[in-house]
Write a structure and sequence with these properties.
By secondary structure, the protein is an alpha/beta fold. It has 26 helices and 33 strands. Among the domains are: 87-255, no CATH class; 752-955, P-loop containing nucleotide triphosphate hydrolases (Rossmann fold); 966-1077. Helix content is 35%, strand content 16%.
Length: 1093
Amino acid sequence: MNRADIRDRVSEEIKSLLIGPYDGPDEKVSGRLSLRYLAGILYPVGSTRGQLQQEETPESADTGGSDEFSADSENPLSLANEMLPSSVAISFCVRKGSDVFVQAGGGHYELEEKSPQKWQRHQLPDSQLTVNTDESQRFEVLGGAGKIRVARRESNFSPSTEIITVALLNAHKTTDKENVEATKNIEKRIYQVTLSCSAEGGILPYEDVSSNIDDLEEEVLALQYSQNSVFAVGHGASVSWLSDGSLADTVSIDYAPSARVYRPIFDSLQLDDGRVFDSSEVLRLGYLASSDTSKNDAVSKLKAFINFYGEWIELQKAISVPQRYERSRDHLISEMSKCFDRMHRSVDLLEQRDDCWQAFQLANAAMLIQMDQNDRINTLRTARSSEGKSWPIPADEAVHPGDNTIPDQLPNSWRPFQLAFFLLTMFDLEHPEEEDASTVDLIWFSTGGGKTEAYLLLAAYELIRRRHRFADPDTGSGTGVITRYTLRFLTADQFARTGSLICALEKLRQACDYKLGDAPFSLGLYAGGSVSYNKIADAEQAISKLQNNPAEDHLFQLDYCPNCGTSLLPSEPKFDDNGEPDLSQLGYSIVENHVHVHCTNDGCLFSNSTGLPIKTVDEDIFETPPSFLLGTVDKFANFAFGKREGSIFKGRDGKKAPPSLIIQDELHLISGPLGTIAAVYESAFDAIIRFQNQALGFGERGPKYIASSATVRDSDTQIQRLLGRSSAIFPPRGISSADSFFSKEDRDLQSSRLYMGIMAQGLNSTSAAHWTAAAMLQAVRGVCESNSLSAKEIDFLWSLVCYCNSKRELGLINASTNDEILSRMRVYRAIQRLDETNLKELRKEEVSSQGVKSISETRGNLLIPLSDNRDTPVRDFIPATNMISVGVDIDRLGAMMINGQPKTTAEYIQASSRVGRAPSKRGPGLVLTLYSPSKPRDRSHYEHFRAYHETLYRLVEPTSVTPGSEQALERALHAAIIISLRHSIKDLNNHPRVSSFEKPETKKILDLLKDRLLASYPDPLHQSHERETILRLYDQVIERWRHLADEFTDLVYYSNSRGDHSLMSDFSGRHSSGFPTMRSMRSVDVSIPMKFR
């Protein structure tokens, strides 16, 4: 079996364990029948959960009867009286007057007389019937065990069609009598229910509302997904269908629906007419980085690359669409043409200017070195893991990293969209005065496509160009690039990847003839006290503890050298001959009151006194600002409280060029309260950068913003509110969602991600989660054992990620891992007739904001593979919250259970995309979503399972960012004003005693800030309310500040002493007349003091 076959076999095993019949149509079940299957059942009319729990003797564990600790207990109504399903239905569309053909099936279990706990399954007689054009009809089916009801209604959208609803009902009624009658109730149930329908002339697509769409964005999406027809809707179950595209032959209910989400192809370029781009050498990094490459030859190939995109655009123009979609088609073509023109401008610039061409070559060289470093380290990690050796590499086992030349013979190539994105945006960095430079370019690409590498190439180019763009090379040596994230796991994970690039740039700086200045390239991590240290003293204390005990908890996020993989921390204490700690294997030390990070491998370039170009302590970052700053969005709220933070925008001497490139990764997460507050603060940072550029004589220009996301909707509005700029999506969308030139849908089943759904019946949500998790875990083990699969073959499915929507659900799952889940796995092993003694306790690794102590350690644990002799500490079960849903790129993970539909489709896509990321190397993904019947939203997603998954990206919800709301401005506007003045006007850096707000410099920065705030609402006619609110509250803040400065000659920005007069107070504080100010943008809720008498 190949890995796709293994995945599909596991999915069938899961379905057999959860729905049955596991041993075929004549199976015998020993023990309690209620403990066998959880779905696909029609109960006698009137059955309740309470009756289900009482009707059999409580001999076995985990009946689902304890609601006390169930996730269902969030519902204020007791579910004991919840009616169990006695019917299931399907609705579909046919031509008016068509005959409909219905087929129903199922089975029931009878208690054997001589064996009171043995149940014999009997297949009920299959029923086939024809329904004519009567208004409604009823039929007896399944040998009298069931009834069919058929209803017809006229379609609301076409007079020539009608909607048919076919329902299958259990014909029996329950009885309240106990003992003997309880057995009869069980025997009245219909298991493994099937219901399928076909129609004379075929089944038509279900009602289409796209003709009533007025919004352009909705219209574009309707056009892109117009080929994805829905043929049926389920009621109480999901549905599936067999279709040729325009008509469906059959529609059926499906209690364990499945759908495939196809991966994009983004490594090759081919037009619909069969033509293939044949100058692929231009995508090879070694070719673009090599000093032997002719610029003219490369430019010619780059132009051919862009012109091939132009040929695709011409084919898109020729596509015929219905009249109602013509506006959308024209809009999409316009966006493609703009992209085409912008890319050509960058290539023209490379052709005309040698300095740009050289920087482009070096940027490719840096990325090639980074990829080489990463590949080498991944190879070392895999090899050591297979040999049972520890990772990272201990210093006394260090491997020489090789020389520091550019490895231009390596085959690494750009994905076409990555190179194209660079060409789209490079011109903007060189010409910030142009209109396109103020456009926010959004990389909208599927997860796992390589968005990070796309913007890292641009970042590398900009950091190199800044060393030559200005008359004084030192001007560009300050912080040039800022990348921001929202989740600390993602921030720390990306820190390691970006650190590798910075090491590559530093190698080039030291080795190449193209002078890059004396200041080293460096990377800073600015992510908050739970991820990195704020003060040198805190770091020094941690280092002191590590010297005596390397196992001490710490916040140093880099645990190995990005260049050679050597550990920066010894695995155990080392002492010299005098009994003193041996510091030679510790990569962290304090040198001249700075944290010095160096490799412990003597053969590594970064083991010398210069060390690794990494800064992880706030005080170090502000003392010598790094070239590349990587941080969490919310941490930037601290700029209002500190006086040294301004060095990020102008250097310690005030003479450095401000950041020229700002990258907002995972844009969809900057929404809601966080995005709203961040938008106000962002106005201040933008204003400061413009002010500093003007002060240095570079003109009033802001930074180039780029963003990325795989799941975003109505991004134009979100970006306008957040960044005060218009935006453009890259790659521009095609007429069909399956083809944007740079990305095409791969219809290969073996690489697709397989989604399954299940909705439990008769169990509370917590017990259903136990059963489902156990079924997934044991199905993998059962398939492995019964087919004698090797560890390498099954590893991609071995570790099950269990995604929970709340900390409460996470806690319930966590507590049950080696209790209820393991017990249920033993039940399934018995059903599979496997030896129960081979089942060991499950190793788990929690991934949540509370469960992760060391992010690098957690990532390392998740990378541990299964071994054939099962002696590696592979993680079997990974309970997780949304912390895992963004940026956790671990290729070996292939299986996920999602416990309840996440709150948004974006979150669902992001979470489920964590598995099956490398189908060709590791194996394709398998995702099972467990839906709760007590949650209407879960039920709706389950009943529309296939339709939902075939149009996932269309259904991403728009996000809301409202920086013009009064509540947001009251919380953050004063902070934006304080940040702008404090970090722009030298006299106001230490104290807020403003003599006049009308001084030219003061007025200039305030005008820049005001204009930037208003830019979030650029339409004075339709957004007058928000603009007026901004101006009114702005004036109030200035007036209040003026009043405090006049009243208190000792006014300070902030003090926690009651006697001091502060402009700011703690957001949750109760004293001080100052502005309540947040230290984190996530602190948006106001605490209300309450006094009880």
